[in-house]
Amino acid sequence: MKLEAGTYVQLEVEKEIEPNGYYLTNGSENVLLHYSEIEGEIQIGDCIEVFLFHDTHDRLASTMKRPLISLGELALLEVADVHPRMGCFLEMGLGRQLLLPIRELPEEEELRPVVGDHVFVVLEQDKQGRMLAKLAGEREFEPYVFAAPTTWKNQWFDARVYKTLKMGTFVIVDGGVLGFGAIGMIHSSERTKKLRIGEVAKVRVIFVREDGRVNLSLRLSKEKGRDEDATILLQFLKERPNGAMPYSDKTPPDIILHKFNMSKAAFKRALGKLMKEDLIRQEENWTYLKEQQMKDN
Fold this sequence. Notes:
Layout: E1 8-17, E2 21-25, E3 30-34, E4 47-54, E5 60-63, E6 74-83, E7 87-91, E8 97-101, E9 118-125, E10 131-135, H1 138-141, E11 156-164, E12 168-174, E13 181-187, E14 200-208, E15 214-217, H2 222-238, E16 244-245, H3 253-260, H4 264-276, E17 280-283, E18 286-289, H5 291-296
Parallel strand pairs: 3-5, 13-15
Antiparallel strand pairs: 1-2, 1-4, 2-3, 4-5, 6-7, 6-9, 7-8, 9-10, 11-12, 11-14, 12-13, 14-15, 16-18, 17-18
Family: Belongs to the CvfB family.
Pfam families: CvfB_1st, CvfB_2nd, S1_2, WHD_CvfB
InterPro entries: CvfB_fam, CvfB_S1_2nd, CvfB_S1_3rd, CvfB_S1_st, CvfB_WH, NA-bd_OB-fold, S1_domain, WH-like_DNA-bd_sf
């Protein structure tokens, strides 16, 4: 049996070498168990379970301590440090840190985890057999996630980001007492800000799919969102010269999103509410405050 970093093995205590510790063996290979890595008492001839890792000198070593993750396992680990060229260093519970390589992270820096975030990772090995973290994805989550119930629709939950793409952000929605959680996606049109990997956001379930995954939004429901958006537009107009803005229901969606951080549909709902309340008027491609609103302002 080959000794591999990241695994638990049963080894025999072969001999003690002061001032280092004990050498353990599987019959063909030896590995050091440093005094500082011992828990409880051991004697020559004992068969003990240890976890294998590489020490600071890149030598295979062992510990009786229990890490937060082992080879092939999924775990949620805290970001202890960030290096701009190497990646993130994760706390794995052994007094040493696990590297999440820069190649695993988004090119855009603001989408990368920061110190204190927790990220879902799987423990793997590099070509030299050293431990490395890899961001977990749908395949790794499959044994743990559950199908979201239809009663989740329009409810708010905490969700942790595990993948971020231009078209959408993928998250694990906290399952609470139901279990691990459900897989969800926040479409780019439903984001109100960029979300980084490891970030926890408040999300609203807008659709429960047949496969149990959920479509999510950072926005309020249409009715609540319409009122909030209408307030934003009204205030914007009041602060504009002559109470006018060069935006209307004919303005392209990308301009609306960039200027007001709302979808074209939400923008039109807010304008419709203000027009119904007789607070604004539209002329060509401009929107104006009604004269009474100008006087009140």
